[in-house]
Amino acid sequence: AQSVTQLDSQVPVFEEAPVELRCNYSSSVSVYLFWYVQYPNQGLQLLLKYLSGSTLVKGINGFEAEFNKSQTSFHLRKPSVHISDTAEYFCAVSGYSSASKIIFGSGTRLSIRP
Amino acid sequence: DAGVIQSPRHEVTEMGQEVTLRCKPISGHDYLFWYRQTMMRGLELLIYFNNNVPIDDSGMPEDRFSAKMPNASFSTLKIQPSEPRDSAVYFCASSFQGGPYEQYFGPGTRLTVT
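The joint structure predicted for all components is written out below.
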């Protein structure tokens, strides 16, 4: 079974500052990793995903994440945030099987201050 | 494509009433997921279907909840009788294949049980 821990429930940052949202996972088998974003009053949408290959994954809206197998982490970063990045961000994990469920973390609320 | 469609967007009902939430997945997707989101419990997977067949309903809270998928383009989640603790946002998502494939979320149904 897999599990995901998002270490920060809320992260406030100033506009144009860098941000890192932390995610750690636990699994006895190899996994796929995801970051989803939920804007206010909307459903979730995929930001990026790691399946294999390069450990640095680039996603939409200037976000990127780095898979670190030894530390079982998949932290999300952006070098300069905008007001429009205000949202809740969910880290998620799934097993390799097509029947595997995606397990979502508890979410991190990113609030951007002008 | 119109994306995943959910109806109604908002539902207010009294305790004890039956509630039916509806979902139309993206055409061609063969997996359909029902999630519930609350402040206290975060995002929970209730049940998912593959090719209209329920695969895992271990997340369904109790017998008051039931879900059906009579065909590839329609699913319902029913709560009978409803209780105030069922108040939440219910999301439907669909994907082309399971596991690592992106799930596309609908806008959600906000259910309030008074």
